[in-house]
Amino acid sequence: MALLLSACSSGSSSSGGSATNTPAPAATIAAVTPAPTPAPAKTIKIGVLASLTGALESYGKQTSKGFELGIDYATQGMREVAGAKIEFIIEDTETKPDVAIKKATKLLDTDKVDFLVGSSSSGDTLAVLPLALEYKKVMVVEPAVADSITGAAWNKYVFRTARNSSQDAAAGAAAIAKQGTKIATFAPDSAFGRDGVKAFADVAKKLGAEIVEEQYADAAATDFTANIQKIIAAKPDYLFIVWAGANSPWKQLQDMKVQEKGIRISTGAPDIAALKTMNDLVGMEGFSVYYNELPKTDVNKWLVDEHKKRFNGEVPDLFTAGGMSAAISIIEAIKKTNGDVDSEKLIAAMEGMSFETPKGTMTFRPEDHQALQPLYAIKLEKRDGFDYPVPVLMRELTKEETTPPIQNKR
């Protein structure tokens, strides 16, 4: 106060008059007291691992776009929550597990992120899971689906907004498996592919179907002739395919006239780029994780409209909704802890937490932190104005119908 009085009494007046030693009135003192400088806002950092290059490049880019949209949706465009700024850093794993480890370590050590999100590849994700445990940081898995992520390789810091292979299996098997049905399977030789086939076969067998052939191909292969020949030789009623990536087998299946040999193909409806190679599969019945027309929710309407505004009229694709869901789950968790990013408090808040997504309500199951969610039974139909067969809703498969088994032996 003495310093303030001295400053007020020794300076020149605003009118240019001489200095005076007369103390200013108390009201004047209060008026010229500078406002306290606000403390810097706290920043919560999120590290996002995605395949921005490599075989799953399109998936990583979809997830990244969806994540940014999700942050904006959940914070009403402010990118602030519970008094903290939200910052996210996206790193390219190149669809290589060793690169994923390096990028995750950089995010944790150098960038000091409070959360990890990712990644596009199950292999990349499985490589990074031990780091979540080592650094004691919550990791939200999106869009990797291998069952082992919330199964044998799981730890308590892992939450998953992506569906897992068992949820896909329940949807896929419900579409085709019946007593006495003979089914062959085809998948990439990876954690994603093998977990997906195992989960599908388990459900299909319970429904009375017989698995007569299993074929696996190198995830980077472009020639599937030998695999397809063995499938044809097994004479199945259906061929169920688990696949992800740009090097899909659809064209070669068409060229080798698999369906003309009486084998019906069934699979999950993939992203739009892959759907463009599936015009000869019009009429196929299968399932979908997400297609922009399927969910009838307010959040999905916002996503579709906003995506078109930001990206030259393009609609969101297969994993855009998943990236958005991951972002929303993190913001909702931060709200529940009132900005506290202590991992133990976050885990307590997120176990059993329900949150609204483009697909509807998701719930993190307390036992393994897998998000329970709806999927969609669909049929591919030709539509004027589209250069790919459109997944048309047959019925929504509720999250109760697609609930997967708990596999982590918690």
Residue-averaged pLDDT: 89
Helix and strand run: HHEHEEHEHEEHEHEHEHEHEHHHEEEEE
Q: Percentage of helical residues? A: 25-40%
- Principal-axes geometry comes out as globular
Quick one: CATH class of the largest domain? Alpha Beta
Question: How far from one another are the termini?
Answer: 62 Å
Query: What's the architecture of the largest domain, going by CATH?
Result: 3-Layer(aba) Sandwich
Strand-residue proportion: 15-25%
Which stretches of 5+ consecutive residues score pLDDT under 50? 1-33
Rg, nearest Å: 27 Å
What structural category do the secondary elements indicate? alpha/beta
- Largest beta sheet: what is the strand line-up? 8-7-9-10-11-15-16
Q: Domains counted in the coordinates: how many?
A: 2
Number of strands: 16
CATH topology of the largest domain, what is it called?
A: Rossmann fold
Protein name: ABC transporter permease
Family: Belongs to the leucine-binding protein family.
Keywords: Signal
Organism: Paenibacillus albiflavus
